[in-house]
């Protein structure tokens, strides 16, 4: 079946596993959660030490984990993968099932049971890189460290990702088809995560205001800041829709900042202004997402995997402890793509994806938060293995 080529051909309703609402999961959050056992955690700990080349006691029962107790791998962290971060066949298969949930099922999945406080900063990075390598065979060039930086009194202007303010529903722009989040610690208050599938937003709007969907399917003017070199800034512009069909799946690529709808981050002076109709359309999307969304209350150690082409995410504002780092919101983020099961980007959305997965393992900046903090944003360029563009609101 060919995808619809014009809005007049779009279906009146989208059905399937992605057409869920929060009410479908709120009574049973275990439906989208894998709980790691003590045996699983022991395997992961051995894999971390194996990668580091540190002594460890092998598991007494048969697994596929090597029996060698010390191997000096001497590899960059970007090399953490199933060959260097070995797990039993059982745990490996369970992690690989996450890929199906994200691409062929509900569009998201959660793994729970890790205690981040039992690892060093380096070990948590290795753990994250190793686990995600079983979920997808391609990982982005760097791990991001997301926390409120307003207390640091930095001289530069902070972007929304670095503040404790709420964030509206969005997708990460021009990156991968899967977003993974690894919760290191949670705030004193707030910080809840919200997910909303575009399929259910579409169904809601088709009933209430289908004109919004038509507007979203038209070309919009986009602006994105790109940094090709140290302290160099280039404004990239696009004319492309917000939603589109491909392989019989509806996809969305949306973050209001890059569409000119964030007053705190204005477009260049000669850019076209958003029309009232487009502003209203963006507001209707937020309202529909709020009606269908699922609220997820994070716990330290959670790993959340989201289909970035099909599910929008948002975040509540939060309050950190002024002194206790384990009561401050801290999230690691890594974009993923699986070359066997992953989604192709809808051509009409014109996503620029070539700069996400273009580095070899040894070049990837899988750094700790302290290592990353030593590099100023103006220096975060490809040559250092870092993403150089803001990716969402």
Automatic annotation (TrEMBL):
Which UniProt keywords are given for this protein, alphabetically ordered?
Answer: Oxidoreductase
Query: Oxidoreductase: is it a keyword of this entry?
Result: yes
Single GO molecular function = oxidoreductase activity
- Organism superkingdom: Eukaryota
Q: Which InterPro entries match?
A: AlphaKG_dependent_hydroxylases, TauD-like_sf, TauD/TfdA-like
Originating organism: Apiosordaria backusii
A matching Pfam family: TauD
Q: Domain TauD/TfdA-like: where?
A: 84-335
Protein name in the entry: TauD/TfdA-like domain-containing protein
